[in-house]
Amino acid sequence: MKTICVTYHTDATQAMQNAIDTCFLAGGGVVEIPAGDHHIRSIRLRSNVTLHLLEDAHLIASRDPEDYMAFLGDTLEPIPEEYKTDAVWTPMQVRKNYDHMLPAARWSNAVIRALDAENIAIIGETGAYIDGRDTYDEIGEELYRGPHAISMFFCKNVRLEGYRVQNSANWAHAIFQSQDITARNLTVRAGHDGIHLTSCDHVTITDCDFQTGDDCVAGVDNIDVTVKNCKLNTACSGFRFGGRNVHISECEFYGPGRYLFRGSLSVEEKRLGVISPSGGHRNNMLSAFLYYADFSRPIRGNAGNIVIENCTFRNVDRFLEYNFSGSNYWQRNKPLEDVTFRGIRAEGIKMPLVLYGDPKVKASLLVEDTTIAFAPDIPCALFHLCHFERVTLRRVEVKNVQSPVLIKRWSEGEIIAEDFTYPDYTGKFEELTTEPFTCEWI
Q1: Whole-model pTM above 0.85?
Q2: FRET partner for 16 with CA separation of 20 to 30 A, picked from 156, 221, 257, 302?
Q3: Which one, of 46, 51, 49, lies nearest residue 32 by Cα?
Q4: Cα(32)–Cα(53) distance, rounded to whole angstroms?
Q5: How far is CA 159 from the centre of its chain?
Q6: pLDDT of 151 above 70
Q7: 81-85: long-range pairs with CB below 8 Å, 24+
């Protein structure tokens, strides 16, 4: 196994790529990046190669979106033609397909990318980071987002550990159709999604600290995912996620988001790469868990066995949002079968928990050993329910209740309440209010 320490004069891109290619051709190895600021365009990580960012090594991304297209001419591992496309992002309302998300599409560009690779790693020591510099791309997603920090397609046995990603022009980690992924002790600051997984299997995310301008952990059609002991702070949702066998535990969700959603900036601010400020417009955490099932990829089955336990939610607008009514573009593919919240301590909640399922696949919700405290002077119901099989509330305490209606529902379904208390409410209380089944969802 080779170990190569990169040296160069000005632009580090070619030196890093040469070192990666040399290790790859030798059967594997480690590419060490020493301390200092290393300006790069885009590099491709290959099978059996570890990119090791030594203490205080900084990868500084180019702010020219055209600098990320050179990989199309890769001669060592040529890009398959079926991965290529000229398609660019279009708004959801007029989109005809998702070709813009193919592996070699402009949208999939990244500072570090991997394609059809196995046994790969990006490891960072203390003070190591990747700075995406909020690269502006006028034909990118939402007409301003540039490349991801890290993009991976069809990879196996991936290890990500120890480094920080800051100011990523799109997602910090965009990982598609990959297996056996371990992400540990990662830090994300500002930018967009912290880690976004699509059709990935066997994923473990632990001890990470995400303060993002978009969703902390996102993705669709993922199987066997474990997230533990992470800190999640965002201007969007802590989790916008879908899949099967998802276990989230011992995580801290808290708002408001330190970094605002960059869509709130002016066009000129985006063009100039103005750093996301703290505070300001649109920095509230929207949901602790928002179900995600769009049509960007075929989904292999209904989502379910999602368990969120022993977590804290602080100053989050909504505890849960599952809205399969059709009004949400991100929740129109396969439905959710069940979700469990156990051992949750939530405070500062401002909106109802939403469980609006599919008429043919009715959802079930279990909430147990949980305390939910609403923010002061918020007169809303605890639950909005429709097309549900069963809601079980076991050893649940609700504080700061301001509404006489605890549960509003638009359809039949079983509700089981065992040791369900609301000690702060002193007025006349209507435990259930059932609206006519023909009510429109609002």
Answers
A1: yes
A2: 156
A3: 51
A4: 6
A5: 18
A6: yes
A7: 83/115, 83/153
